[in-house]
Amino acid sequence: MKRWYIVLAIGISLISPATEAAERLLTIGGAVTEIVYALGKGNEIIANDITSVYPEAALKLPKVGYMRTLSAEGLVSTNASIIIAEAGAGPRNVLDQVRNAGIKVVQLSDGSHTPQQVAADIRAIGKELNASNTEKLASQYESSWKQAESKLAGLPGQPRVLFVMNNSGRGAQVAGDETAANAIIKLAHGENVMAGQYKGYRPLTAEALVAAAPDVIVTTKEGLEASGGLQNFLKTPGISMTPAGKSGRIISMDTQYLLGFNPRLPEAVTELAQAIRKP
Ligand code: HEM
User: Fold this and answer.
1) 174 vs 39, 161, 169, CA distance in Å?
2) Residues with CB under 6 A from ligand 1
3) pTM score
4) For the segment 200-245, what is each residue's pLDDT rounded down to a tens digit?
5) What CATH architecture applies to the domain 19-148?
6) Cα 168 to averaged position of ligand 1 atoms, centre (Å)
7) Where are the domain boundaries for CATH 3.40.50.1980 in the chain?
8) Strand 201-203 to 173-175 pairing
């Protein structure tokens, strides 16, 4: 009799990976959400945050607010079994509270805004979710980045770029060092005109704009809408006095595509690199 119990126990332990219940997954940060879908695990996501705008299926799920201003109550109420959050998600104490409430919280550790970070994120999330195609996706991404990188190396010039963010309702902000915007401008072989001056974002002032004299201004589609469209944006004090304003070289791109550091990074950098070189 005892022997049968042992055989049964071994049998159950062998089949358990296949019969494992799907996670109730809460994804925080557009890049995490995109990677989970790319790994074929999108059906396990029960909720996400408002930066999770791609793929389209992600938009249909309940939202827990904004990844930088999370509330413990909102997260716990989803009844998630696991939360995977981007490195920049927070506040930290909110994620700690959720952990203390017994929910598994995995926060990605690399917030370096590099192409290598995306590959590391794919591998970390894939491992966490036991996704069988993790290595395939990571190496596909790596080879498409390598291809993009070698094309970028041949591009002429180094346009002087100013990045304006206006998604937060706090008014227009300009990107300095250690931002995703600064990183993507460099990857596109451009020069961030605010590099070396300050870290993070600062309110846009007419004086700073004129002094920075950008050739081209990059902003987000959402931010441009919040400014009341291109014509209103061009009326922002100082902009018309910059080379970018005079020549109308204002580029807007989807926020999550441009700044998300997700698997679409090779295409986003290539598109930006071409756009900032268009006369
Ligand atoms: C609830 C409205 C929002 C608020 C209050 C807000 C606030 C902020 C703040 C304060 C920062 C700067 C962080 C820093 O200084 O390090 C930031 C950055 C950022 N936000 Fe938001 N945001 C909002 C909505 C959004 C949405 C809807 C998206 C995307 C769809 C988004 C995407 C980003 C990204 C990608 C950055 C990083 C930019 C970079 O590092 O260059 N935000 N946001």
Assistant:
1) 34, 11, 14
2) 50-51, 53, 66, 68, 165, 167-169, 175, 179-181, 200-201, 255-256, 259
3) 0.91
4) 999 989 999 999 999 999 999 999 998 889 999 998 889 999 999 9
5) 3-Layer(aba) Sandwich (3.40)
6) 6
7) 19-148, 157-275
8) antiparallel
